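Please review this pair:
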Amino acid sequence: MLHYLIWKGEKGIVDLNGCFAFAFYDSLEDELLLARDHMGIKPVLFEITEHGVNFASELRPFFSFDKNREIDHAALTDYFRFTYIPAPKTILKNVNKLLPGHYLKVKGKFLDMVKYWHPAATDMFNGSRDEAEKMAKELLHAAVWKRLAADVPLGTFLSGGIDSSIISGIAAEARDELNTFSIGFKDITFFDETVYSQLVAKHIQSVHHPVSLSAEEVLKDWQNMLDSFDEPFADSSSIAMYFLSKAAKQKLTVCLSGDGADELLAGYNKHKAFLKSLNTGVSMKLLANLVPKSNKVGRQGKIKNKLRQAQKLKRLLKEKWPEKYWFLAQFSDREKVESLLKHSMTENKQLSELKNESLSSFLLADQCFVLPNDMLKKVDLMSMRHSLEVRTPFLDKDFVKFVNSLPDEYKYDNGKGKVLLRSLFGDALPKEIFNRPKQGFEVPLEKWIKSSWQKSNVDDWWNSDFIAHQDIFNWEEMAALKSQFWSKSPGESPVLVWCLIVFQNWYKQWMVKK
């Protein structure tokens, strides 16, 4: 790549495919190119100072450049609302994330931010469904085969969902005795998907390694896992990714994952909810209004989860576009976050992808907002914590462009997402994989937090004197949140409590003057 960039210069960046983050310095021209891959699989952070440009692949080194850092309160508000901090912000003022598909060009004293790629299709596909399926299959197989090139042990993550099962199945065709890894949770069946991953592993004849986590095993690594976050990041599924990567690293150096398919092909429950909101008749609105207001909701079981989803749909029907998108993207209500934070700075977010109220716009927004800032960051954080490289075939730039050129009905039809993948691979994998409800990569968060409470510094972080000294949170709201979390009806409070735990751990490490 070094020689290619010497030959092509910045024009060569467009030709690259895969995951990358690099700085290329031309000493003859005194020119720096700081680049991030097309979809944001790898991170790049930078700051511009009077002395030059500082850059790194994580936030920690910026404290070496300057120990006197300030929190960006707009970024903090985003964090508590979404559980992550969207680019270009970081938790620190003046330090930025480079956006996916961009590079920063620095020549002498001149700087130029260049957008070299975007996932939106330039031309829409106008062939038949059979032609679309044939092309998609060829592109996906090519994407997997390209990422199987490795001179080190390689395997796949296999959750038993559609996406990872397809990637694992294609990889197993090319690799004998493919190692596959999945994670489950002892004694908590609602979150455990082990039976599906083992079913697929048997079908594709992989050497399967199911990881079954207990609360005790999680607590042993609790502090080390918390310390993995370079900035506050509270997607709770990162806990599972930490332990999955740790287990995989014992046998592998490279893993393939199924990340990206949900955002490309409408695989999330929120996509289903959004489309329901576009086609609501009188009966649907009447039914939604009958949903009771209750704190007995959450992600801890099937009934509570169904009630949570019904309540969310009820509120969704009252939102207008593009606020519908932000409502479905958030984990905590904006009003709740604003009451918790003393200096909340909510900004009206603008995404050029949200041009019109359609599934295509929604998916493009997910690809540019949720995917790089949440899903890909989670995987990169926890895999690299264990020196494990993760490759994402669904995010091959040719496959992305092609899928984004397809009509919406090729992605979502008859109440189901990923219809393209269902049609292509329905006969290649067990039927149960395609008929099961969407589970998501979730963890028993409430149980783990309560188990760790007395064994960590959580009480210190809730201390009223410490809170007053921080001058960040409203103490009354903090106390009310803690009370709700420990009540018989915690509702959605575990999400905000987890956000607080991750933030306070980070704050104690980096912002408290030693």
Notes: The first strand starts at residue 21 and ends at 26. The chain is about 45% helix and 10% strand.
